[in-house]
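Internal tracking record. Fields below are filled automatically when a chain is submitted to the structure queue. Please do not edit lines marked as system-generated. If the sequence contains nonstandard residues, flag them in the REMARKS field before resubmitting.
Queue: standard
Priority: normal
Entity type: single polypeptide chain
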Amino acid sequence: MAGSQTSPDFQILTLGDAALTIEFGQKIDRAINERVIAFADTVRSQMWEGVLDVVPTYRSVTVHVDPLCLDVNTLTDRLLRLPTSALQVTPASRQHRIPVLYGGEAGPDLEEVAAFAKVAVADVIRLHASVQYRVYMLGFSPGFPYLGLVPESIAMPRLATPRITVPVGSVGIAETQTGIYPIATPGGWRLIGRTPIALYRRHHTATQFLLHPGDLVQFEPIRAHEFNRLERETHDHPH
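SYSTEM-GENERATED OUTPUT FOLLOWS
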């Protein structure tokens, strides 16, 4: 098989002999993402031998396989035969409140975002913290959550030239998305604050990532002394 195959609900694209991508749409949309996550969960639950990883994104699922155990033609047939229950959406099961120290050294781009939106800095903070964001996907770096959607007035494009290093915990905006840097990496998002909460917990026994696709996040503005206290607690009691 080459190219793609379609069903009424999705399109399957072949990525060589070791992966398939199942596409559900072409935009950032909550309903599409809910179907993506439900489908990914269903594929995982099949426990098919040869499936190495199942990766949901905003609008698609990529299934990686060991071609010596499971060829993509057989996998395609199995995916097309999955019951319609594979697309049944279950409500988000986890909600998180993420404390954020906005502005200053923690958020060096906050004033630029305010100028872009033609509002006061306090209004940017209020707007950013007013939304209950959906975790659409993880990617880029370990546990990096892509959250949406940002209020339109503060949806500023990313930097033309990325920073060489973005501090761990930085909260940024890139157009309609907001995200949190779990580790220090290069990055081009507009930095408006930092959280002391660890998103990537390398030595955690249950799960290394605090957030998962489908979770809901509410940001909570905090002051510097609260940030310092929470950061000390996180350092003293690593997950």
